[in-house]
Amino acid sequence: MAEYVSMSWTGTPNGATRAERQPCPYRAYVPDPLASRPLTLSAQRVADVNDVERRLADLNASPQALVSLEALARLLLRAEAVASSFIEGLQINVRRLAKADVASRTGLEARDDTAYAVLGNVRAMESALDLADAPTVRVDDVLALHRRLLEGTRDERFGGLIRTDQNWVGGTGMSPCTAEFVPPPPERVQALLEDLCAYISGDDHPALVQATLAHAQFETIHPFVDGNGRTGRALIHLILRRRGVTPKFVPPISLILASHADAYIGALTAYRYEGAPDSAQAQEGMGVCIDRFVADTARASIDTDRFGTELDALERGWRKKLGRVRAGSSVDLLLRVLPSAPVLTVATAADLIGRSAQRANDAVNQLVTANVLKQTTIGKRNRAFEVPDLISALTGFERALASPLGDTRQAAPIRPVPYRS
């Protein structure tokens, strides 16, 4: 049965106050195993889950903006990475992150620690998707995902290591005694992770339900010193891809969750029931979590579909500026992949279209002349090019996802968002 266990904190020697230096009692939550936990869904919840899973599948299969959105999958992951950060008030605009991305992939000198930390989250989500074809998901896979998340950041030393000390969420930060939530004691974490991976490897529940419960269980276990939220959100991507619901891309669900932060935290709190897993409290707590996740996934899908239409319009506008473009030419190929590259160099353009550097350079120059691309720099002197229309569209997309109504002109963003440049 799920329970709170009474524990004792020995005190914090370097605490700022006498109270912080004193021993104190606290309660740590130990959830039930998930792999064998009973779940009863109402007919309404089943219908809602089926509707949203169908919406996700249609979005992935639709010819509407399919090429653009598939190319944009990395940028949608980037949006997830920003939303998943626990750095309060973190704002990374599209241009800054895109420049750091190009620099990291081409070896250019342009160090940006904050941007690289977010890119680490993108890498972790890509790693999660790589696990989708594996027959089972193991604890070692989750550790490797976490290791990649923190790679190259100041917390790299914690990557892939299960915590050996008690951690907690909220409160003063000096002890768990005033925390808002205290996860299981460290000696319980390994077994809970093994159970979680067994659940992820199965298919007892609909994909969206599985993603919801696995995410909530992971956040409850909180197995790492840092990066728990970001890793837990990467698992959402893994499960939806693994179950075949999102074979091409996952809409930025975390951006919507972040926009409803209080409701999201409330859903995770409701998930942490006490007592038997088949109790009314347990079943309703899991139901509340599922309702929140289903609603936010639906909103992310609707907004992503709308954004796909905007991307199609952008490409048509670029082609109109250029006039007649020969099918299969370097310019034609570059226009097709441009939605995935808000900032590029001649080298990255050549890689994107599979043509020589000279042909890529000629194509880039034509796009600059037509005002589709604008020259910029990465670092002090490395020549690069940005796509102003795309940067503006991506910024608007992130801002819209932070609006309760999906439109910042009708309702202001309710969390930190990139400024329009």
What's the short version?
With about 425 residues, the chain is mainly alpha-helical.
Give an overview of the whole structure.
This protein is mostly helical and about 425 residues long. The chain is built from 17 helices and five strands. The strands form two sheets. The chain has a three-stranded antiparallel beta sheet. It has a two-stranded antiparallel ribbon with strand order 1-2. Strand 4 (about 375-380) and strand 5 (about 380-385) form a beta hairpin. Helix 5 crosses helix 6. The longest helix is centred in the last third of the chain and has 43 residues, at about 280-320. The radius of gyration is 23 Å and the shape is globular. The model is unreliable at about 85-90 (pLDDT under 50).
Helix and strand layout, with pairings?
Elements: E1 3-9, H1 18-21, E2 24-30, H2 43-61, H3 66-71, H4 73-84, H5 94-106, H6 113-130, H7 139-150, H8 189-201, H9 207-221, H10 228-242, H11 253-259, H12 261-271, H13 280-322, H14 330-337, E3 343-344, H15 346-353, H16 357-369, E4 374-378, E5 382-386, H17 388-401
Antiparallel strand pairs: 1-2, 3-5, 4-5
Helix pairs in contact: 2-13, 4-6, 4-11, 5-6, 6-7, 6-10, 8-9, 9-10, 9-13, 11-13, 12-13, 13-17, 15-16
